[in-house]
Amino acid sequence: MEIHEYTRLDAVALAELVHTGQVTAAEVEHTARRALERAHADLNALTGPLYDPVPDHAPNGPLGGVPFVVKDSGPFVRGTPFCLGSRALVGAVAHTDHALMTRFRAAGLAALGQSTVPELALSLATESRRYGTTRNPWSPERGVGGSSGGAAALVAAGAVPLAHGSDGGGSLRVPASACGLVGLKPSRGRTPCGPLTGEAGFGMVGEFALTRTVRDTAFHRAAEYAPFSAPANVAGLPALSLPLAQSREGLPIGVQLMAAPGREDVLLAVGSQLQQAAPWEGRCPPLHV
Questions:
Q1: How many other CB atoms sit within 10 Å of the CB of residue 16?
Q2: Looking at residue 97, what DSSP letter applies?
Q3: Is 272 a catalytic residue?
Q4: Is 128 annotated as catalytic?
Q5: Catalytic residue (one of 71, 73, 86, 187)
């Protein structure tokens, strides 16, 4: 598989090619590694070498063979290092999988590496003394937002179709807006965090992913939607950031939708309609693999 073929596909399309035998998971992984290394050289979005070998995952899962990266936001993948972007935590190793990582493995997702974050994931700018500054593929002199900034840079650049991230006060939605991506903060408790791991944010932090298409994010059927409200981050309401337009400088402009607790189906239905009415898929930043 050539890189230009790989970067045109979202996770659903890529999984379909693997499941139907049109391409092998090994071929996809080889291409993804090349794409990630190329993107990282331009964007500084990975925390270190790619995982080799790839952590075990279910090859026949619904997203079997689809490559992704995990966020350096704490212990996530068993046996791999993490430091939350802080020099104080260098040398820490995850001794067990995060509860969500077990779901990712079962889905067949192939974790190839770890994405950058600001120190302790406590900033909306992905800059740290540990890793330096992560650059925006749309405009490399600008940042990517945070704290899931490395993930956003890699997805926007076409290096992976989706990437793990987390969101308490905008850490998925802000990078999604800055990089022209789809970023969903799920309702509180929608995705599993496991014992204690979700307590640092007092329950406000939700784990999910950044993608390029609504259908990669979708997992519920359609219903009705609720208006935006400022206390949503504390209240645990689901929120979705979508690319809607571009500035005069060619930078993505995102729009945020919110719904009642547990109504991700509403957000994804409205988001799908918006994406059809104002198509974004196919637009590529200047720094693209």
A1: 12
A2: -
A3: no
A4: no
A5: 71
Considering 128, 139, 147, 187, which one is annotated as catalytic? Answer: 147
**Considering 171, 177, 187, 241, which one is annotated as catalytic?**
171
Is-contact 217 182, C-beta < 8 A? yes
Copy the structure tokens of residue 157.
């650049």
pLDDT digits (tens, 9 = 90+) for 113-130: 999 999 999 999 999 999
Task: Give Dmax over CA atoms of the chain in angstroms.
Answer: 48
Q: pTM value?
A: 0.90
The answer to whether residue 148 is catalytic is: no
The pLDDT assigned to 88 comes to 97
Domain at 3-277: CATH code: 3.90.1300.10
CA torsion angle 233 180 251 31 (round to 10): 140
Query: How is residue 276 written in tokens?
Result: 């059809």
- Buried b / exposed e over 22-56, threshold 16 CB at 10 Å, is ebebeebbebbbbbbebbbebbbbbbeebbeebbe
**Residue 230: pLDDT above 80?**
no
The ranges assigned to domains in the chain are 3-277
Residue 49 structure tokens = 């070498």
Q: Percent of the chain scored above 90 by pLDDT?
A: 76
**SS3 at position 266:** helix
